[in-house]
Amino acid sequence: MEFFVISLLNGVSYGLLLFMLSSGLTLIFSMMGVLNFAHAAFYMVGAYVAYALGLKIGFFPALFLAPLVVGVLGALVERYGLRTVHRYGHVAELLFTFGLAYLIEELVKVVWGLAAVPYRVPEILEGPLFTLYSTSFPKLRGFMMLVALLMLLSVFLMLTRTRIGLVIQAALTHPETAQALGHNVPRVFMLVFGGGTALAGLAGVIGGVAFITEPSMAASLGPIVFVVAVVGGMGSLVGAFLASLLIGIVQTFAIAVDWSLGGMLAVIGIVVNEQTPLYSLWKLQLSQVAPVLPYLLLVLMLIFRPKGLLGTRAD
After folding, report:
1. Can you give the pLDDT at residue 31?
2. Residue 157 maps to a domain
3. How many domains does the chain have?
4. How far apart are CA 162 and CA 154, in angstroms?
5. H/E/C letters for each residue in the chain?
6. Average pLDDT, the chain
């Protein structure tokens, strides 16, 4: 029971971090049809900016300011970069964001170096939040979950209860009509792109202090974000939320167990030994293949349900 509860909480906290990151990518795609390959790079920028600001003003002010800085950077990228190449089609947009990801990574290396920076947990978030039997659940994990849920609530209320949310939805479904009513649709696109990158920056503030802040953090987490977006359904925030929790929980439980196919077959009386064909495959433990599971889920989803869990488009 202890293992199940702690693993479930760890999986949910990791899944909520994935949602913080993937929600911005999903929002940008649903609004603009742009698959932003540089999204994880903005996540990395959020972590580094928060680290730099935290040295001067502390962690919690940086928690609010770093996403704003990343959001402004994203808005400038859309206005002076992405909008220029938009006329040449989606391939040009993909290539632009792909190159931008590498450019940001190299700039980070120039400014902060190749080694990881000492982005530390603030004292108030150190220690256990509670202890279940003999296992402690960290305060930082609880804080990560709280921030993700508050972000989810804020985005939902903004899109459904505010005027700007109604304008965004109108521009999404009927851009010409919204333009005719006097709304500046290109500006809405710029704000959406900036808002999506700000969400990535917020995830970077939390993820950077929870894990490690170094130049390869975008490359290590970026592919998982696209898995979440595809499994949840391109353009669906609710789908991204469900897929994030699913992948976070599955991967966390897989890492924590030492089951193998050979061991499970032994339970029903089938013995696997060195003479068994593909013996090395049968002896692989689930924890060893855990990093592959999200991509296996991605392949299965593309085969059997290309539009994802709750997506409305499969392109």
Report:
1. 74
2. yes
3. 1
4. 11
5. CHHHHHHHHHHHHHHHHHHHHHHHHHHHHHHHCCCCCCHHHHHHHHHHHHHHHHHHHCHHHHHHHHHHHHHHHHHHHHHHHHHHHHHHCHHHHHHHHHHHHHHHHHHHHHHHCCCCCCCCCCHHHCCEEEEECCEEEEHHHHHHHHHHHHHHHHHHHHHHHCHHHHHHHHHHHCHHHHHHCCCCHHHHHHHHHHHHHHHHHHHHHHHHHHCCCCCCHHHHHHHHHHHHHHHHCCCCHHHHHHHHHHHHHHHHHHHHCCCEHHHHHHHCCCCCCCCCCCHHHHCCEHHHHHHHHHHHHHHHHHHHCCCCCCCCCCC
6. 85
CATH of the domain at 216: 1.10.3470
60 lies in which domain range? 2-258
- What pTM, to 2 d.p., does this model score? 0.88
Regions of the chain short of the pLDDT cut 50: 314-315
pLDDT score, position 281:
66
Greatest CA separation for the chain: 74
Q: Write down the pLDDT at residue 130.
A: 82
Contacts of residue 274, defined as CB under 8 A and 6 or more positions apart, other chains included, come to none
Q: Which amino acid is at 226?
A: F
Two structure tokens written together for 307: 């539009």
- Tell me: the pLDDT tens digits for 210-262? 888 999 898 888 889 889 988 988 778 888 899 999 999 988 888 877 776 66
Q: What pLDDT does 315 receive?
A: 46
